[in-house]
Write a structure and sequence with these properties.
The structure is a single chain. The chain is an alpha+beta fold. The chain has four helices and seven strands; from the N terminus they run βαββββαβαβα. Strand 2 and strand 3 form a beta hairpin.
C-alpha cells in the first residue's frame, strides 16, 4: 500500500540517458502539446537560460483537480532537452508524466525521471514505466520520493 505524502519537489522528465535526442524535442511543439492537453495552459518562450545559454519554455497547466502545475522545459542543444515541474507532489507530477509519455514522446519507453531530492543524494534517473495509469505512475513517483527522502 502506498502512503501518500504532500512532499513537494522538482521532478525532471528526460529522454533516456544513452539517447539524449530520442524525443527530438522542439519547444514550439511542446507548447502546442501543453495547450492541447491542458486547456487554459500558459506558455512563454525563454531565451539564454543559465550558464549554458539554453533555450526554454516556462509553463503553467491546470490539473483535473483544479491545482496549477508550474514547469520549465529546457533545450541545451537542438532536439535535446528536459521537462521539469517545480514544487509538485508525486500525484501532480504524474499527470504531466503520463501526458508526455502517451501523447508527446515518440515511444512510451523513452522517459526517465529524477527529482531534486534524489540528485542531492546522488540518485540517478529512473525509467518511467512505459504503461500505467496516472495513479500507477503516481505510485512509482511516490516510491521514488520514499526512497530518496529520508
Amino acid at each position: 500500500m502506498t502512503i501518500w505524502t504532500d512532499r513537494r519537489t522538482t521532478f525532471v522528465f528526460t529522454p533516456p540517458s544513452d539517447d539524449a535526442t530520442a524525443w527530438s524535442l522542439e519547444l514550439d511543439a511542446l507548447a502546442a502539446h501543453l495547450k492541447r492537453e491542458f486547456p487554459g495552459a500558459w506558455t512563454k518562450p525563454e531565451q539564454q537560460l543559465g550558464p549554458g545559454l539554453a533555450n526554454g519554455l516556462s509553463f503553467e497547466v491546470q490539473l483535473p483537480d483544479g491545482a496549477w502545475l508550474r514547469g520549465l522545459a529546457t533545450q541545451v542543444r537542438a532536439d535535446s532537452g528536459a521537462v521539469s515541474v517545480m514544487d509538485a507532489t508525486a500525484r501532480e507530477a504524474a499527470v504531466l508524466a503520463v501526458s508526455l509519455r502517451d501523447n508527446f514522446v515518440p515511444a512510451s519507453n523513452l522517459i526517465e525521471f529524477y527529482s531534486d531530492l534524489g540528485v542531492e543524494i546522488g540518485h540517478g534517473p529512473d525509467p518511467l514505466p512505459a504503461q500505467g495509469s496516472v495513479e500507477e505512475i503516481a505510485t512509482v513517483l511516490q516510491g521514488h520520493l520514499d526512497t530518496v527522502d529520508d
